[in-house]
Write a structure and sequence with these properties.
With 559 residues, the protein is an alpha/beta fold. The protein contains 26 helices and 14 strands. Helix 10 packs across helix 11.
Amino acid sequence: MSSKGSQHANVGDVITYQVKGDFHQPLLTVSAEEKTQKSLFQLLQPISDASHTRDRKRSPPDSACMQGTRLEVVEKVNAWANSPISTHTEPHICWMYGYVGSGKSSISQEVCDKSERQGKPVASFFFFRNAADRSKIWRLATTLASQMATVIPGTKPFIRAAVDANPGLLDPGEAAGFSIRARMQRLVYAPFKAAIRRRDRVRALAQGPFLIVLDGLDECDNKDEVQELIDGMLLFFSENPFIPFRVFITSRVEQYIQSRLDVPGVHLENLANHCSDDDIATFLRFMFEDGCRRDPVVKAYVQQHGTWPTPDDRCKLVKHIGGSFIFASEVLKFIMGSNTVGDHQTTPMDRLPLALKMNLGLDDLYAQTLARSEHLPHFTAIISTLALFPNPLSISETAEALGINIYKVVNVLVNLQAVIHVPGTDGIPVTLCHTSLRDFLTTQSRSGRFFVHLSHHVTLFRRWLEGPFIFRPRRCSLDQWYLWYPRISVSGAHSALPDHSNSLTSLGSILIDRYRRSGTVADVEEAISYIAKRSHFYHHLIRLAHSHPSSIFSNLSFI
C-alpha cells in the first residue's frame, strides 16, 4: 500500500528511514560496518510499490490493457524498445503524451509486462500524485538501480561501489547534497555502462536493449528536478549514442516537460493518434459479455429479449465515452454495479440510458488547468472561441477571429495542454481533449467563473460584419456557428435579405438558444443593430425581438 508520509535523518555514518502510512516499516539503521553484510536491496531501500510488478489493487493506478485493445500502439512501442541501436542519431528516448484517461498507464504496464514475458530486461517507475515518495523524484534512482541489479546482475558490484563511495546517495531527502542527475549518473547510468564494458558482456541484453519505463512523469511534484532528470538523460545518451539502453516516458503534455522532450533526440508518440473507437468498442463488448454471464438478471433479460445492449446502444456508448478508457470503466461500473439509483431499485437495463447522460468526472481537473492561464490577456475570448466553434480552429485562425496576435493565443494555450491539444504549428487545428470539456465550459453550474457565455457568439458575429477583410471561417459558414443545436433557416430570409441570409441564420441560431435558456434576447440586441444598418429587414426584426420574442421563432424552421 502506498505510504502517505516519510521521515529520514542522517547522523554521522547512521542513516535512518521510516515510512508512515496505513502500515509501518520498522526503523532501519545502516551503519558503515553493516553495509558489507546487507544485501544491495536492503541498502537501496527501493519503493516496492512503484514498479510494474506492484499489487495494482492496493497501489494505483490499477491499469491494464484489456485483451484485444491497444495492440497497435503497444506493438509499436515494443518494436522500438527491442530494436538494436544502429545509428548515432537513433533516439534512445520515446515520449508518449496524451490526455487524462487516454490509457497511458495501461500501455506502460503492458509494455513492461510484454518485455518481461519475452525475457527482456526492464525496470519501471510509476509516478502517482499524492502518494508520498511515488510523487517525489528523490527515490527514483535507488528504485531503478535495485530493479536493474535484479534483471542485469552484472551491474550489482558497480552499484554497491557507488554506494560505498557516496553513502549520501541513499538519503531519500532533497537536502542530501546529490542532485537527481548525479543520483541517476552514479546509481544507474555509470553501473550499466561499466557492466556492458566487461569482456563477458551482459547475457540479459542478448534479447534487446535495457528498457526503463517512467509512467506519469507529470505526476511528480518536483518540476525543476524533472527537467534536470531529462537534461541528464539526454546528455548521457548524446555521449553514448550506441549504448543498448532505452527509456519510455509517458505523461500529459505539460510545458515544463514538453520544452525538454520535444527535441530531435526524442521519438514522440501522440496517443491521440492511437485512441480508436474500435478499442473502446472491444473493451465494452468484452465487459458486457462477462457481465451478462455473471448477472442472473441480465441473463434472464437476454434469454427473453435477445442481445443486450443493442448494437445501437453500444454505438451511442462508444460515442459518449469519446476515447477515454477511464470514463469507459466508470460507465461500466455504473451500469453493471450497484442495483440502486437514489432510493429506487434498478437493473443494468434501467441504468444504461442514465449512463449516456453521465459526465466524465473531470471538472476539478478542468478548473485547475484553466486557472493556470485565466490571468492572461484574452483568456476568456480565446477559450470561448475554441469552445463555441463547431469545427476546430487553428491558432492562426483563432487569432484572426479575435483580431489579436498569434503569440497571445499561444501564451494562453501553452499552459493548458493537459486538456487542450496545442499543435506544433499555427495552421493545424487546436482540439479539446474530450467533448466533456466543451460541456463543462458551457454549463455554468459546473464551470463557475470559466463559464463560456453564448453571447460570445455576438462578438464573433460582429467581427464578421465589420468588414470583408475580417476573418471568415474557411471550414464552416456562419449558419454553423452554433454547435450541437439543430441547424435552422429563416423563412423568407433569402428574398428579404439576399446579401445577409447567412448572417441572419446565424443570429437566429443564437436567438433560439438564448430564448430557450433564458427567455430573453437582450444580449443579442447589439448584433441585431448591426444587421439593421445593412438591411431593410430592420424594423420588422427589431420589433419582433423587443415585443414578441417568441414570434421570431415562428419564422424559423428546423431542417
